[in-house]
Design goal:
With 296 residues, the chain is of the alpha+beta class. The protein has three domains: 63 residues, Phosphorylase Kinase, domain 1, CATH 3.30.200; 33 residues, no CATH class; 194 residues, HIT family, subunit A (2-Layer Sandwich). It contains seven helices and 14 strands. The strands form four sheets. Strands 8-9-10-12-11-13 form a six-stranded antiparallel β-sheet. It has a four-stranded antiparallel β-sheet with strand order 1-2-3-6. Strand 1 and strand 2 form a beta hairpin. The structure holds 7N-methyl-8-hydroguanosine-5'-diphosphate. 7N-methyl-8-hydroguanosine-5'-diphosphate binds next to loops.
Length: 296
């Protein structure tokens, strides 16, 4: 699909999610008759350009004045990109569901539930990981790679996450994608994975410090469970970062993961893992059909 120049051909269908705190809105629509999801996010202030807002060109409408306290609606001139847009096109039904606000439910996934319910679904039905293969094969985003260890067993590619615009290091957000295939998630990790995990942790943090000047003490390094994409990857986010969909609830800190595996190689094959599912997730439906939620 071509790179968009504007939203002329975008037909709005429905606002599927809104988050006033994160200042985001997600819209489902069509581009050239095909489904598309557009996520709009108001950008952060750039401290070095704040003077542009605080000038005579910004019109102020007073909304409250009480003693020394005043609030205003401010209308600055158009001086920078006020909104960042993420476009998924063509979007599948799964993408539309992923980005739609819905009720959530908690699942405590025992090893048996993983084997009998989660795993068959992951194998039969999951998001395409073509974008991951494009990165590993240098077909896409090659110029964005921050660090690479090409080793087929322990190697990985570190690059900015799609959610980060690379502007403000306080919202720094990168992802490390392993070269090795067939490691689906946290559940597959054992003592055999330790060299790979230690490699990602240390070389990833070193590369971030060198490139962005952010010390390792200010970076959260974690895996998601459940992830959206079942090819092992690790998130690196600034401790102050609250990227939409970052899902701190799903985060398993890499350092703790390494420690747990050192205590017992099969820790993640034995552990009950807790996560939330949303009403439109296939995983929710499978757990519901199995009677899992009947007792709650
Ligand atoms: P996840 O935990 O599997 O899923 O993480 P989530 O999206 O539910 O968090 C995958 C991560 O990869 C997310 O942080 C995405 O923002 C990021 N990501 C997804 N895609 C499709 C791309 C992409 O094409 N390029 C880059 N650089 N990052 C992506």
């Amino acid at each position: 699909p071509p790179v968009l120049k504007n939203f002329k051909d975008f037909n709005i269908n429905k606002v599927i999610a809104e988050n006033p705190r994160c200042k985001t809105a997600t819209i489902h629509g069509q581009i050239a008759g095909e489904d598309a999801v557009v996520l709009l996010e108001k950008t952060a202030f750039d401290a070095s350009h704040l003077g542009n807002y605080l000038s005579e060109l910004t019109t102020l409408n007073n909304t409250l004045k009480n003693d020394i306290y005043g609030t205003y609606d401010a209308f600055p001139p158009l001086i920078e990109n006020a909104i960042r847009a993420t476009v998924i096109h063509p979007a599948t039904e799964k993408h539309i569901k992923k980005y739609t606000d819905q009720p959530c439910y908690v699942v405590h996934e025992t090893p048996e539930l993983y084997t009998n319910i989660t795993l068959p679904l992951i194998i039969s039905k999951q998001f395409s990981i073509q974008w991951v293969y494009n990165i590993l094969g240098k077909k896409k985003e090659a110029d964005r790679i921050v660090f690479e260890d090409p080793d087929p067993e322990q190697g990985f590619v570190l690059l900015p996450d799609m959610k980060w615009d690379c502007k403000d290091t306080r919202s720094l957000y990168l992802v490390a994608i392993v070269h090795k295939h067939e490691v689906k998630s946290l559940r597959d990790l054992t003592a055999d994975s330790l060299p790979l995990l230690n490699n990602i942790l240390h070389k990833g943090l070193d590369a971030i410090k060198e490139r962005f000047g952010v010390p390792s003490s200010q970076v959260h390094v974690y895996l998601h469970y459940q992830p959206s994409y079942y090819h092992l990857h690790v998130h690196f986010a600034h401790v102050q970062c609250e990227a939409p969909g970052m899902g701190a609830d799903r985060a398993h800190m890499l350092i703790d993961v390494i420690d747990n595996i050192q205590i017992a190689s099969n820790f993640y094959q034995r552990k009950t893992l807790t996560f939330t599912v949303r009403e439109e997730d296939d995983l929710y439906k499978k757990y519901k059909d199995s009677g899992y939620f009947d007792k709650s």
